Amino acid sequence: MRTIEASQITAAVAKLAVDANYYLSNDMRSALETAREQEESPLGKTILGQLVENACIARDEEVPICQDTGMAVVFIEVGQDVHITGGNLEDAVNDGVAKGYTEGYLRKSVVGEPLFNRKNTGNNTPAVLHTSIVPGDKIKITLAPKGFGSENMSALKMFKPSDGLPAIKKFLVETVFNAGSNPCPPIVIGMGIGGTMEKAAYLAKKALLRSVDQQSSQAEYAKLEQELLSLVNETGVGPQGLGGRITALAVNIEYYPTHIAGLPVAININCHATRHAEVEL
């Protein structure tokens, strides 16, 4: 049994909160540069160039890529041979988010109660925490700040199995087209298929953690990802919703077994600054 102090988790989460907001991942920067080369609209090319420049400025000057530094969504894989001491996991994560958002001068955007008294918590806590128990004696932490310009454009639908793939394609294209400029395209699309209502939504969110240059390991789903990406880019929404060829950089699909009577599908959209950072303790 390996011991990890809660304070180590707090320190790691604090650093991830800052890193994810300051430094655009290499795969996203490369995808934006490639998109600039492929975009046929002169305005779209200019916008994509500005997005690349913005990411470089954020990195060099160590400032947030976007003013909406998001709600912290944290995925943690806890090795079954790890024992956490000096505190509990959830408190350690929230302490880390508070530390990172405060000391990193990141905007605090979380309200403590969503409906009647929308008062800001003042430190961007609590995080949305997803945990899983895995083999081993390590803890892997991934923090993905989620801005709500894109989050608000997400969708979920409970299809009947008889609706089939054509209905899913239509659902995705309509969701992206109706979102327009709101999610700050070019976007990255996470799609969760299967499970139950909440499982599909979780899968869609998790799909956004995959690099945009990495397709599904399943051949049928990899092919579908490319087909859906082509359909989305035919909508003409374009960079920042101002028209063009590049509306999305990637469609990532995760799936799970489901009931014989169901076909849940969730779509989670991320903006051009699809942010996440990870560490293993």
Counted by DSSP, the helix tally is: 8
- Give the strand order, joined by hyphens, for the main sheet: 4-2-5-10
Overall 3D shape: globular
Estimate what percentage of residues fall within beta strands. 15-25%
Oligomer: single chain
Total count of strands: 10
Distance between the termini: 14 Å
> Structural class, from secondary structure content?
alpha/beta
Q: Output the radius of gyration.
A: 19 Å
What's the rounded overall pLDDT mean? 97
Number of domains: 2
Helix-strand topology string: EHHHEEHEEHEHEHHEEE
Uncertain residue ranges: none
Main pleated-sheet profile: 4 strands, mixed
**Share of helical residues:** 25-40%
Description:
By secondary structure, the protein is an alpha/beta fold. The chain folds into two domains: 2-20 and 65-146, no CATH class; 149-273, no CATH class. The chain is 40% helix and 25% strand. The strands form three sheets. Strands 4-2-5-10 form a four-stranded mixed β-sheet. The chain has a four-stranded mixed β-sheet with strand order 6-9-7-8. It is globular, with a radius of gyration of 19 Å. The two termini are 14 Å apart. The model has no long low-confidence stretch (mean pLDDT 97).
